[in-house]
């Protein structure tokens, strides 16, 4: 019998890629992909029962309320899903490895090229809940916290990844508004999944930044995706954070990934190179 491994958020982008790549990169585990219809992580009693029944020997926690506008609109639900559900899982998994996905948005974006030891300063509800959850997880004796950036690639619903959302917008004949002065380090979700399995296999613990090897503005990202799909007649409107009047957005949350790169057997790709090689 293989040891069971729980992957929460299995219907999401990163979770689905972890499930798909497990037979190749983690064949030693019996992977159980958890989705909300299967197990509502905010039903703490049900989670405790299932944990006791299935006895997983690894938990990779991807599930989250991750869209910032939704978190700003309902902070109570964001705290329940991102903080309380995480705390419950981490406490249940105290004797096994616990992998937690956090975000580059824990930083305020004032300097960029952030390393793991830089001070966090979240600007919005989503980021605040992730910082708080990191605090719970850091008490876990075998924790692995992974701060990632924008992830690309196919998701089960077809609309979870930022590149999917762009293509859907263009396909509907609408323009995409993108900032020229907001910077991230996008990464393919398949690469994220491979890296996670490798880190788990090497029993790594602590906090790691896991993102692409290229700092790009939102506008530059859009241009790259647009060039890959000319048949959609993509339209991009360039904007600036200086003119933005919505919830606070950090200008440069690019991540320094030297620590995780030293632990991996393969190079983290540039988004532009991955996109150029990606099948249509």
How many H/I helices?
A: 10
Helix content: 25-40%
The computed structural class is alpha/beta
Q: Give the low-confidence spans.
A: none
Order of helices and strands: EHEHEHHEHEEHEEEHEEHEHH
Tell me the CATH topology: Rossmann fold
So, the CATH homologous superfamily? Answer: NAD(P)-binding Rossmann-like Domain
| Quaternary | single chain
- Spatially, the strands of the biggest sheet line up as 2-1-3-4-5-10
Q: Class in CATH?
A: Alpha Beta
Tell me about the largest β-sheet: 6 strands, parallel
Which of globular, elongated, flat, extended, rod-shaped describes the shape? Answer: globular
Computed over alpha carbons, the radius of gyration is 18 Å
Span between N and C termini? Answer: 39 Å
* Beta-strand fraction estimate: 15-25%
Overall number of strands: 12
* Average pLDDT score: 95
Total domains: 1
Give a written overview of the molecule:
This protein is of the alpha/beta class. The protein has one domain (4-160, 186-213, 253-271): 3-Layer(aba) Sandwich (Rossmann fold), CATH 3.40.50. It is 39% helix and 17% strand. It is built from 10 helices and 12 strands. The protein has helices spanning 13-25, 44-54, 68-73, 75-92, 125-138, 162-171, 189-201, 218-228, 258-263, 271-277, and strands at 4-8, 30-34, 58-61, 98-103, 143-148, 151-152, 176-179, 183-184, 187-188, 206-210, 216-217, 236-239. A 6-stranded parallel β-sheet has the order 2-1-3-4-5-10, with helices on both faces. A two-stranded parallel ribbon has the order 6-9. It has a two-stranded parallel sheet with strand order 7-12. Strand 4, helix 5 (125-138) and strand 5 form a beta-alpha-beta unit. The longest helix has 18 residues, at 75-92.
């Amino acid at each position: 019998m293989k040891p069971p491994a729980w992957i929460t958020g299995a219907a999401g982008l990163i979770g689905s890629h972890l499930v798909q790549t497990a037979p190749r990169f983690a064949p030693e585990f019996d992977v159980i992909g958890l989705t909300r219809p299967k197990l509502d992580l905010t039903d703490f009693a049900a989670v405790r029962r299932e944990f006791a029944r299935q006895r997983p020997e690894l938990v990779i926690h991807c599930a989250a309320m991750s869209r910032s506008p939704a978190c700003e609109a309902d902070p109570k639900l964001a705290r329940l899903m991102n903080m309380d559900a995480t705390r419950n899982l981490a406490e249940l998994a105290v004797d096994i490895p616990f992998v937690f996905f956090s975000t580059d948005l824990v930083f305020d974006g004032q300097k960029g090229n952030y390393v793991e030891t830089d001070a966090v300063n979240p600007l919005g509800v989503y980021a605040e809940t992730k910082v708080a959850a990191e605090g719970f997880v850091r008490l876990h004796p075998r924790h692995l916290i992974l701060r990632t950036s924008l992830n690309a690639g196919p998701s089960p619903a077809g609309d979870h990844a930022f590149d999917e959302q762009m293509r859907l917008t263009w396909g509907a004949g609408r323009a995409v508004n993108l900032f020229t002065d907001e910077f991230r380090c996008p990464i393919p979700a398949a690469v994220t999944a491979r890296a996670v399995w490798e880190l788990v296999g090497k029993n790594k613990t602590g906090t790691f930044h896991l993102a692409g090897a290229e700092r790009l503005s939102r506008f530059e990202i859009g241009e790259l995706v647009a060039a890959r799909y000319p048949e959609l007649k993509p339209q991009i409107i360039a904007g600036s954070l200086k003119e933005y009047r919505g919830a606070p957005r950090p200008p440069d949350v690019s991540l320094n990934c030297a620590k995780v790169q030293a632990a991996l057997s393969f190079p983290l790709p540039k988004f532009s190179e991955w996109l150029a090689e990606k099948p249509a």
